[in-house]
Amino acid sequence: MKLIGFLIVVAALTFVSVHFLVGRLPGDLVIDRGGVVLYAPVTTVMIVSLLLGLALWLFGRIRRD
Question: How many domains, the chain?
Answer without folding.
Answer: 1
